[in-house]
Amino acid sequence: MRRIFTCFFLMSAAPIAAAPQIKLVASGLDSPWSIGHLPDGEGVLVTLKSGSIVWITEGAARAVGGLPKVVAKGQGGLLDIMIPRDFAKTRQVYFSYARPQRSGGAGTALGRGVLDKGASSLRSVETLFEMKPGNSGGRHFGSRIVEGRDELIYLTMGERGDDMAAQDLSRHNGSVVRLTRDGKVPDDNPFVGVAGALPEIYSYGHRNPQGAALDGSGQLWVHEHGAQGGDEINRIIAGANYGWPVISYGRHYSGAKIGEGTAKEGMQQPTFYWDPSIAPSGLAIHSGTNAPEWKGDFFIGSLKFDMISRVDGDTMQELERIKTPETLRVRDVEEGPDGALWFLSEINGALYRMTP
Question: What keywords would UniProt list here (predicted)?
């Protein structure tokens, strides 16, 4: 699929299209954060920021225990969940969370457990990776987990409110890390053997990336929060620097200029950005299954404007804003096995299924 890599400045909101069909799947969810579809009709797992998982099947919902202790402070807590392609064989579930540290702070971590059929608890739970260092603040943990076509794990992490840490390769802040399924460092990671650099880092210079997905070709895309404006969609390249906080299309909340401007040699330009900020969270790039009109399009939840932004995957222009009573503070968006879009509303405390 041809991509046009250009920066699009959104001067005004995209048109609001006719409402799609939306069905309530589950309600009563306290601060839901992420959706994970199980294969073979086994249902859906939803993480709650407070530190638990809800297993939703047709007509029923039950809690899943066995998780490690999480720091549910500020933006931290139990965050993303990822069901690998070989789940039917391994029964493994991956999750990210704010992990308590000896210093009294917290850092974004990647965990894994095994979920047996009908189980009420994960077993064989382990922490595979933890960012270095964490801190005591409650901001910008990231974090999304993607299983690449290369069978490796990509985990996004925010800069934890420490802006310049995103330019420091000796810290994981503001990066996308790339790991093996067991949390080890792949030999071909771009900073393996580079003095002073952490070898897990795959790309850096990110602010707070809360959306990540593969397109139809297997390319990884990540979106991230800007400050006041400058939310970005980025095509992820191994070893690339995405510029935060040296370059940005936004401004500080005070109105002050960020960094050196909007461009600098050696730093990547966003493929798309929003100004003003929509506070993006969750990302699905549609396969076209049972919805050919959506094929290749990006669907991004908005925490600020209570809608789902649909961006054309070829021209990288915003096509529409799906805004309904259900789309209040959308935290996650995911394509289901049948091609429907599933999304979480924090304010409604609900999981929904949407079709064109």
Answer: Signal
> Exactly one of 140, 172, 206, 286 is catalytic; which is it?
140
Between strands 330-335 and 318-322, the pairing is unpaired
d(CA 67, CA 61): 17
Cβ pair 297, 310 in contact under 8 A: yes
Residue ranges per structural domain of the chain: 21-355
DSSP string, 136-180: S--S-----EEE-TTS-EEEEE--TT-GGGGG-TTS-TTEEEEE-
Return the number of other C-beta atoms located less than 10 Å from residue 292's C-beta.
10
Is residue 252 part of the annotated active site? The answer reads: no
CATH 2.120.10.30 fits domain 21-355: yes
Mean pLDDT of 174-201: 98
For 59, 249, 330, 350, the CA distances from 24, given in Å and listed in that order, are 12, 37, 14, 7
With contact defined as beta carbons under 8 Å apart, do 114 and 91 qualify? yes
**pLDDT higher than threshold 80 for residue 352:** yes
pTM of the model: 0.94
Q: Is there a contact between 185 and 179 (Cβ–Cβ < 8 Å)? A: yes
CA–CA distance, 213 with 220 (Å, rounded to integer): 6
Residues in the chain: 356
Confidence of residue 5 (pLDDT cuts 50, 70, 90): very low
- Among 219, 205, 151, smallest CA distance to 174 is for 205
